[in-house]
Amino acid sequence: MASKPSIEVDPIKSERSGTVREVGSQAIWSLSSCKPGFGVDQLRDDRDDTYWQSDGQLPHLVNVQFQRKTTVSDIYIYTDYKLDESYTPSRISIRVGSHFNDLQEIEVVMLTEPTGWVHIPIKDIRDKPIRVFMIQIAVTSNHQNGRDTHMRQIKIYSPIEKQGMAIDNFLTFSTVEFQQFATIR
């Protein structure tokens, strides 16, 4: 069980660094429930002044299904306790698998009055990103025993694998035949 401190987190910084890319747009998103006008479109619109609002009993579920097996390294969730109070999640379960029937919980995140982005690294037991067809983000409890949930944004990131080989691999030639090609004239 992980507890996330409230440090300034910015998923866009990671994206700009070129090490990850947002893959949520490649998925099909569904919700366990939502109030009219407060659904997936608001959850994915890149705005922090809109939100998904659940409508019903806990747990509240966000299902993210990829059409092909996708490597996932990070999930970022934007919440705002100052605005949402009892609607703010306090316990989130991350579940992964191939489909609804084989989901396994891989992370439980406890939140204490979060405002801003919450970063949830997604790793297997060897500390590598996970390859999945489906992610389920389950809100299992809210602050102040609130019934419905507000989540303002969710972003899902995949690592960018560098193509090619490093030039350093070719700088130490061991034969005379290869050393003649070590410099360009």
From TrEMBL:
Output the superkingdom of the source species.
Eukaryota
Q: Which GO terms describe its cellular component?
A: anaphase-promoting complex
Which Pfam families does the UniProt entry name for this protein?
A: ANAPC10 (PF03256)
Give the matching CDD domains: APC10 (cd08366)
- Please give the InterPro entries that the UniProt record associates with this protein: APC10/Doc1, APC_su10/DOC_dom, Galactose-bd-like_sf
User: Could you tell me which Gene3D superfamilies the record lists for this protein?
Assistant: Galactose-binding domain-like
Keywords attached to this entry: Cell cycle, Cell division, Mitosis, Ubl conjugation pathway
Q: Name one GO biological process term.
A: protein K11-linked ubiquitination
Is Cell cycle set as a keyword in this record? yes
DOC domain location is 1-183
SUPFAM superfamilies named among the record's database cross-references: Galactose-binding domain-like
The UniProt similarity line reads: Belongs to the APC10 family.
- Function of the molecule: Component of the anaphase promoting complex/cyclosome (APC/C), a cell cycle-regulated E3 ubiquitin-protein ligase complex that controls progression through mitosis and the G1 phase of the cell cycle.
| Protein's name in the database | Anaphase-promoting complex subunit 10
